[in-house]
Design a protein that fits this description.
- It contains six helices and seven strands.
- By secondary structure, it is an alpha/beta fold.
- It has a single domain, classed as Rossmann fold (3-Layer(aba) Sandwich), CATH 3.40.50.
- A seven-stranded mixed β-sheet has the order 3-2-1-4-5-7-6, with helices on both faces.
- The longest helix has 21 residues.
- It is globular and about 45 Å long.
């Protein structure tokens, strides 16, 4: 994804902050730090390119180190997209707030709370990465996604078996995109979700 010079500078600063904070609060696996750009940032940028949000509210569940929520906020900084990062860990929420402040991302905010403990956010877009298996994610998506919204999920190589299991209790439209950064992984777009 081609980005402006300002956006590229924000990503560089985000990387720097993530590397600085990671030894203290383990935002990403230390083994992946040498490949931080490809393994994490470029991986999440695929999602932004596919969803191409032009406006509305984006909610990232279990944001952790801001993947993909902060990547969305940085890539969409010049669009009318508000990004809400939901993270229950106080230390990780502090990291997210620091990045938002340092990178000047006024349309991004942090909600430090448990996902199931907050009222419906009724978002146009909901994302999650490495949060939970799809069958467990479905209740969160059902609670926080607007009726005409889309969920964008980055899933590993076992994504097809997760989809099969989720379909036992949920009805939903699904479109999958092969990951360009991880062999066998996929980006899932889920919509029209309802409980069986």
């Amino acid at each position: 994804m081609n980005v402006s010079r300002e956006t590229a500078e924000r990503f560089t600063l985000y990387e720097t902050l993530l590397r600085r904070w990671n030894p203290k609060i383990n935002l990403v696996s230390p083994a992946t730090l040498p490949d931080l750009r490809t393994r994490h940032i470029d991986d999440c940028l695929q999602l932004v390119r596919l969803a191409d949000p032009q406006g509305g509210e984006w909610v990232d569940l279990g944001s952790g180190g801001g993947l993909p929520g902060l990547v969305v906020a940085i890539a969409c900084a010049d669009r009318p997209v508000t990004v809400k990062l939901v993270e229950s860990d106080q230390r990780k929420a502090a990291f997210l707030r620091t990045v938002i402040r340092e990178l000047d991302l006024p349309r991004a905010s942090v909600l430090c709370a448990r996902i199931e403990g907050i009222k419906s956010l009724n978002a146009a877009y909901v994302s999650a990465r490495a949060l939970a298996p799809l069958p467990r994610l479905m209740a969160y998506l059902d609670h926080h996604l607007a009726a005409d919204g889309q969920a964008w999920l980055l899933k590993g190589a076992q994504w097809q078996s997760e989809v099969e299991e989720a379909r036992r209790h949920w009805k939903f439209d699904l479109f999958s995109y092969p990951s360009e950064t991880q062999h066998g992984a996929a980006i899932l777009r889920i919509s029209r979700l309802s409980h069986e």
